[in-house]
Amino acid sequence: MSIYNKKTLIAILLLTIIISFIFFIATKEDNYNKDELYENKIADHDQNPSDENYGVASNNPIASRVGEKIIKDGGNAVDASMGVSYALAITEPHSSGLGGGGAMLAYDGKPNVAPKQWQYKDISSFKYDEKDEIGTPGFVRGIHDAHKEAGKMDEEKILNYVIPLAEEGFEVDSELERSLKLYGSDVDRDSPFFEGDKTKREGEVVKQPELAKTIKGIRDHGPDYFYDKVGESVSDQVDEEITEKDFNSYKTTKKEPVSTDYLNTKVYSASNPLGGTLMLQGLEIDEATNNQVPQNTQSAPENEQIDPNNQTTPNNRLDYITGILKSRALMYRNRDIVNGQDEDYDEYLSQDYLLGKLNEVNFESNFNTNNVDNTSTTHFVVVDKEGKVTSTTNTLSSFFGSGEFMKEGFYMNNSLSNFSSDPLSPNHGGKHKTPRSYTAPSIVVGPDYYMGIGTPGGNKIPTTTNEVLIDYLKGNGTLQESIDKPRFYNDGGTVFYENAMSKADVSIFKSLGFKVEEKRNDPNFGSVQAALYNKNDKTVEIGHDVGNR
Questions:
Q1: Which of 277, 426, 262 is nearest to 353 (CA)?
Q2: Would you tell me which CATH number, out of the four given (3.90.190.20, 2.170.150.20, 1.10.10.10, 3.60.20.40), belongs to the domain 34-290+327-368+400-544?
Q3: What would the mean pLDDT of 515-519 be, rounded to a whole number?
Q4: What is the pTM for the complete model shown?
């Protein structure tokens, strides 16, 4: 072979290697040093939770780190709640976001003073049609208004804590991967969470430049940027299902929470059209029918059989279970007291009213047990260094809301699907009206402590919150232990329970005439988040649930 041919072959080989390398660089997935991700940079590796007098309870470690960092840098609970809300909007697009709404309760520890409440739920258009599902989102306006009234850190500074999560990216966790796989089939895939037919997987890094740009606009120009410029664009993208007028007219609702006394505490929860009244009814029913010695909600021994006619069963377990099941059945019958047109009425929490209604109901709740779509919500609690506590629930209503992804980087809600189809119901759809929600962010004030608590879970929210609160307030363990215990709920003639439920409890369900079914990986069981502030030693107790039990 001639020298000329050898040089030609070498040149071709080198050119092939160079082209291949360029092609590899251009087409390969980004490689990241995970330690350099912003979510890890803000982690406080030196923090010892037992030494801290503040904390964040959420099922998302990234959002919790953001909230803790804001408090550590001088912010209060409301400041941190803004940061956590936006962090969750970035990292949990299936549960909440700029296209949805929510509610926040804030308590500063002053005796005999009710917590403040801001409701920023999605509301129907002035030109509402019964086929509409998307409401005008309240997230941006509501969180801004809460911060304007009760925050102290500059809003621009707070949003600078979260923008890098969207701009530089965050690492997908198992919960997001699971939600994308299970509930992402019918949503817009023209988003950073999909690559063609494939969903992002655990460990991959997601960047959201469009969402970062939107949050920067809110940071620099306030909520009017969202409700003017972004609102105009969204209106076009959803074919004017909501209009520019709807965006320009949106207002946060400031109102008193509902409350009741329970076991030497005052329990506050979200008022109409949210589900706090239904949750408080469950506590009232427990106190009226089962307020004797504390029951051990870890249940009777595995092999112990329960006689349903014996009212002295160990630690009143039968009474407790009966109360939970009947409360849920009453909640189904009572659900129309929660609506967007009526005021809250004290009579719904009187024991005369409740005991009278209990005599009229059987155990069957008749909720749709197969529908888990509207269980996607996110709840978190913040306690700051001064002892102020916030309890916040944000939601898109269903997993990924309506599934419509806006070019500004977020999914829109489908909250109007929560209207009743019954024209006689006060929850029937109408123009510029907020549909019923079962969300119930709550604050409990005891003699020497107070705490925030809440959960996602659709119409199971009041039941799940009841189970954890009753267990904890009757002294059956730490906050975390009460959250970790197995849960149950009744729909129709069946009790659905988690796999750790004792045989004795299952025997009680059967003895009361129910069919039983064990369920795993069921979002109906919620994800309870709670944080408690001890007034005596100024310590904070955190109890948090996993996203997927």
A1: 277
A2: 3.60.20.40
A3: 95
A4: 0.89
